[in-house]
Amino acid sequence: MKAKTDDKPQNEVTIVEPEKLPPHSVRLDEPLKRGNQVIDVITLRKPKSGELRGLSLQEVLSLDVNSLQTLLPRISSPTLTKQDVADMDPADLTQLGVQISVFFVQKQRKEEAFLTA
């Protein structure tokens, strides 16, 4: 009796699709740890004007760390603390800041950029 073998060739490469993230989400290179909880994806929502109180838009858009430490806890899910942001890998903080900057571009400008790209 012959042993059953797979029909797939030995050198076939399987491509794994990346997990689809919710809109305005960032997968962290260095997950945050809070006790037993591990946070590896942060989802942001567009801030309302009141959530920008006490902040300079120029500093937010220039990815000022202090401004991001103030704003991210107001618009993140799961809710980050100021200390979470302070402990974050700089590359992850930059990605979140870039995502925030997208919120400040008008829809028409985004569409124009998309059409010219």
What do you see in this structure?
The chain is an alpha+beta fold and 117 residues long. Helix content is 38%, strand content 17%. Strands 1-2-3 form a three-stranded antiparallel β-sheet. The longest helix is centred in the last third of the chain and has 13 residues, at 90-102.
List the helices and strands and how they pair.
Layout: E1 25-34, E2 37-44, H1 57-61, H2 65-75, E3 76-77, H3 82-87, H4 90-102, H5 107-116
Antiparallel strand pairs: 1-2, 2-3
Strand order of the largest sheet: 1-2-3
Shape: globular
Order of helices and strands: EEHHEHHH
Strand content: 15-25%
**Secondary-structure-derived class:** alpha+beta
- Number of helical elements: 5
| Biggest sheet character | 3 strands, antiparallel
| Unreliable segments of 5+ consecutive residues | none
Task: Specify the helix fraction band.
Answer: 25-40%
Distance between the termini: 60 Å
How would you state the average pLDDT, rounded? 87
InterPro entries: Phage_tail_E/E
Protein name: Phage tail assembly chaperone protein, E, or 41 or 14
Organism: Marinobacterium stanieri
